[in-house]
Write a structure and sequence with these properties.
The chain is mainly alpha-helical. Helices cover about 75% and strands about 0% of the residues. It has helices at about 10-40, 55-65, 75-105, 115-130, 130-140, 145-170, 175-180, 185-220, 230-240, 240-275. α3 (about 75-105) runs antiparallel to α8 (about 185-220), α4 packs antiparallel against α6 and α5 (about 130-140) packs across α6. The longest helix has about 35 residues, at about 185-220. The protein is globular, with a radius of gyration of 26 Å. It starts with 9 loop residues before the first helix and ends in a 5-residue tail after the last helix. The relative contact order is 0.11.
Amino acid sequence: MILGAAQPSPYDALAGDWRRLQRRRLTAGALAAAAAFAAFAYAGALEFSRYADALRTLAQLAQDSTPPDFSRWREWGRPLLETLATGIAGTALGAALALPLSALAARNAGAPVWLNEIVRFALGAVRSLPGLIWGVIFVAAVGFGPLPGVLALGAHSTGMLGKLFFEALEHVEPGPGAALRAQGASKLAVFRYAQLPQALPRLADALIYRLEHNLRAATTLGLVGAGGFGLEIVTAFHLFEYREASALILVLLALVISVNFFGAALRRSLLHARPERK
């Protein structure tokens, strides 16, 4: 050691770490901005000539769509019920499959690590396919109607809810489970009486959000032959019945708003039901 040489202070080391962290953040931000700009350019969003007639076209479409035509409202009951049934049944199917799979995917639920990884991969693969692709697959498998919509939403919901469920299970307090294990309880008993009750409000919250999503997604499945209210909207547009299409969209909007209010009320009740931690 050279006598008289200045020794680096702890402040200098912290300042150096902070500067390196900032450089990494700036680099990551610049790369993200460049990727977003490239995506916009590739999609044609920067070709401003394409926007020249957009406002005029939208104004004409709005004029052709007003006033909404509700004259056929008596014929919309069945497709509306199909959409509701598809969304509810698809969510229930996804939740029924996701709960046991999430117990196998959660690393604190007692399953072997190799099984955790296999189930996580399977859940990721299932949710990687959009609901419309699942709809095409199940329409080819079981034919037209609400059933392929239920299966499509159930398949995609299994992947999404499975991920949300096992993440909720992994964030529970370990104390109650450890106490049960110390008393000789089995892995299933620990899951049933310690982990699941703690995670249940978060699981229900995720389920409600998924139900809201699936009721909206059920309308788009009409594009691939899965029936429901979406098929009525697409048919109206194809026949240039824009006034009827606007009425159908208003009915769909009312349905989604009603479901959102219902979901918000359920979430508030779950929130008030959670025990306060001391």
